[in-house]
């Protein structure tokens, strides 16, 4: 059985239900987006897949192998976590060397090359890195590790616009040359949406959406025009947000669009993913 | 070529149309090689599967052909083929919209024709 199968995972922290019977599947060689607000349960799921946490119920299979306490399964997966788990006293260069011990396919030369491209001084100690360079350091390892599954937990944390762009481009290049499964957890949906093949949205421990990105983008649209035009148009439609500016209105609508019924003067654009995401994950 | 999220068209369509535009303007000449899937996806920061889907449309239409192990090329006769295809869409995409905007601004048919002539002269 290929891929990572998550079956009915439930995890509680005291009274908090972090994950509620979550079932999903990560297929080989696809790029996934795991989206949700802070505390939605994204990191918990990634940590359970990689044995840093254990579920209260349910199980996970990695290419058919049980994930718990199973080196054979775990060596197929690499988690770039938000937390820095490397010893403070180690230099980046030393961590690279250690990575090679744990992950035999770690490409040391490529890692050094990436570090150079990002302007990361690998002689620096891990603890002295700024938030941005700490993320870069972890990105470099994640892109060089060459495991079939790479999990990125908030990879662009603290990165400036240039470095974020570099990361996305390097990820695509790497994926394009030697496909692997990438799971990117983030709350910056707009930025990654074009890269993703599938999108999973988690809210308060529940899996709300598990859809191809293309289908998701087709699930709604935005229209703008005069307030009167928009008010008439949206009467029989499912509207998730309305912005008014003077006499003008923009509405985001869920559902299929029939362009031939679109009144003259109303402009249509694609679904605003960020608005869709905010609406979906908002507390009622 | 611009890839835009806000555009109502799916991204793979935008890729296909962007390459069509490049062929029509001569940026990608007939018989010449076009960028690879990797180059396209890295450049536009899109999933390679999406780029592939866009290219597949053009391959199906015989606009682009693949040479195994070498890359993708613009087929001979593509420009003519694309011109004919685009002409059919011209009324739908441009004339309708032009008239819509003209009505909003109160521009008459005669005024539009004048502007078209001026546009051709400039």
Task: Set out the fold topology.
The complex is a heterodimer of chains A (284) and B (122).
Chain A: E1 4-13, E2 16-26, E3 31-35, H1 42-49, E4 57-62, E5 65-66, H2 71-74, E6 77-80, H3 92-102, H4 108-118, H5 131-144, E7 149-153, H6 161-177, E8 181-186, H7 189-192, E9 198-203, E10 206-212, H8 213-218, E11 220-226, H9 227-233, E12 238-245, E13 248-254, E14 267-270, H10 273-281
Parallel strand pairs in A: 3-8, 3-9, 6-7, 7-8
Antiparallel strand pairs in A: 1-2, 1-4, 4-5, 9-10, 11-13, 11-14, 12-13
Helix pairs in contact in A: 4-5
Chain B: H1 11-24, E1 33-34, H2 37-44, H3 48-60, E2 64-67, E3 71-74, H4 78-105, H5 109-121
Antiparallel strand pairs in B: 1-3, 2-3
Question: What's the CATH H-level superfamily name of the largest domain in chain A?
Answer: P-loop containing nucleotide triphosphate hydrolases
Subunit arrangement of the protein: heterodimer
The CATH homologous superfamily of the largest domain in chain B is called Winged helix-like DNA-binding domain superfamily/Winged helix DNA-binding domain
Structural class of chain B: mainly alpha
Q: Which term fits the overall shape of chain B? A: elongated
Helical content of chain A, roughly? 25-40%
CATH architecture of the largest domain in chain B: Orthogonal Bundle
Largest β sheet strand count, sense and barrel closure of chain A: 6 strands, mixed
DSSP helical segment count of chain A? 10
Tally of individual domains of chain A: 2
CATH class term of the largest domain in chain A: Alpha Beta
Strand order of the largest sheet of chain A: 6-7-8-3-9-10
Principal-axis shape of chain A equals globular
Radius of gyration of chain A: 21 Å
- Helices and strands of chain B, in N-to-C order? HEHHEEHH
How many angstroms separate the termini of chain B? 24 Å
Molecular structure report:
Chain B: Pfam families: GntR. Chain B: It comes from Acetobacterium paludosum. Chain B: Keywords: DNA-binding, Transcription, Transcription regulation. Chain B: This is GntR family transcriptional regulator. Chain B: Residues 9-77 form the HTH gntR-type domain. The complex is a heterodimer of chains A (284) and B (122). With 284 residues, chain A is of the alpha/beta class. Chain A folds into two domains: 4-215, P-loop containing nucleotide triphosphate hydrolases (Rossmann fold, 3-Layer(aba) Sandwich); 219-281, Alpha-Beta Plaits (2-Layer Sandwich). Chain A is 32% helix and 31% strand. Chain A is built from ten helices and 14 strands. Chain A has helices at residues 42-49, 71-74, 92-102, 108-118, 131-144, 161-177, 189-192, 213-218, 227-233, 273-281; strands at 4-13, 16-26, 31-35, 57-62, 65-66, 77-80, 149-153, 181-186, 198-203, 206-212, 220-226, 238-245, 248-254, 267-270. In chain A, the strands form three sheets. Chain A has a six-stranded mixed beta sheet, sandwiched between helices. In chain A, strands 2-1-4-5 form a four-stranded antiparallel beta sheet. Chain A is globular. The mean pLDDT of chain A is 91. Chain B is mainly α. Chain B folds into two domains: 11-77, Winged helix-like DNA-binding domain superfamily/Winged helix DNA-binding domain (Arc Repressor Mutant, subunit A, Orthogonal Bundle); 79-121. In chain B, 62% of the residues lie in helices and 8% in strands. Chain B has a three-stranded antiparallel beta sheet. The A-B interface holds A 30-31, 165, 168-169, 172-173, 175-177, 190, 193-197, 213-214, 217-218, 221-222, 257, 264-265, 268-270, 272-273 and B 3, 5-12, 37-38, 41-42, 44-50, 100, 103-104.
């Amino acid at each position: 059985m290929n891929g990572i199968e998550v079956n009915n995972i439930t995890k509680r922290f005291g009274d908090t239900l972090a994950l509620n019977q979550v079932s999903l599947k990560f297929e080989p060689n696809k790029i996934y987006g795991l989206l949700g607000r802070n505390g939605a349960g994204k990191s918990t799921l990634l940590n359970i897949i990689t044995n840093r946490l254990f579920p209260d119920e349910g199980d996970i299979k990695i290419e058919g192998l049980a994930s718990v306490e199973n080196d054979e399964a775990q060596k197929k997966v690499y988690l770039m976590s938000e937390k820095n788990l490397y010893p403070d006293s180690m230099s980046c260069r030393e961590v690279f060397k250690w990575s090679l011990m744990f992950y035999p396919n770690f490409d040391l030369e490529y890692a050094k090359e990436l570090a150079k491209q990002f302007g990361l001084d690998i002689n620096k100690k891990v603890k002295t890195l700024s938030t941005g360079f700490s993320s870069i350091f972890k990105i470099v390892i994640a892109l060089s590790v060459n495991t079939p599954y790479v999990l990125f937990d908030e990879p662009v944390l603290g990165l400036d616009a240039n470095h974020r762009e570099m990361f996305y481009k390097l990820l695509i290049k790497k994926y394009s040359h030697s496909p692997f499964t990438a799971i990117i957890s983030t709350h910056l949906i707009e930025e990654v949406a074009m890269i993703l093949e599938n999108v999973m949205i988690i809210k308060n421990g529940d899996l709300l959406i598990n859809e191809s990105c293309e289908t998701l983008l087709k699930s709604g649209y935005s229209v703008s025009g005069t307030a009167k035009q928009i008010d008439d148009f949206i009467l029989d439609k499912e509207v998730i947000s309305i912005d008014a500016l003077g006499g003008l209105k923009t509405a985001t609508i869920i559902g299929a669009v029939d362009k031939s019924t679109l009144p003259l003067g109303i402009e249509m654009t694609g679904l605003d993913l960020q608005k869709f995401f905010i609406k979906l994950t908002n507390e009622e | 070529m611009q890839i835009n999220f806000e555009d109502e068209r799916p991204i793979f369509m935008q890729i296909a149309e962007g390459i069509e535009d490049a062929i029509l303007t001569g940026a990608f000449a007939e018989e010449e090689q076009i960028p690879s899937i990797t180059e396209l996806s890295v450049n536009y920061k899109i999933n390679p599967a999406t780029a592939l889907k866009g290219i597949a449309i053009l391959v199906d239409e015989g606009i682009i052909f693949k040479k195994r192990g070498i890359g993708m090329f613009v087929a001979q006769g593509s420009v003519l083929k694309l011109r004919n295809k685009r002409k059919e869409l011209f009324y739908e995409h441009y004339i309708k919209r032009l008239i819509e905007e003209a009505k909003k601004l109160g521009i008459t048919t005669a005024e539009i024709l004048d502007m078209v002539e001026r546009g051709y002269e400039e």
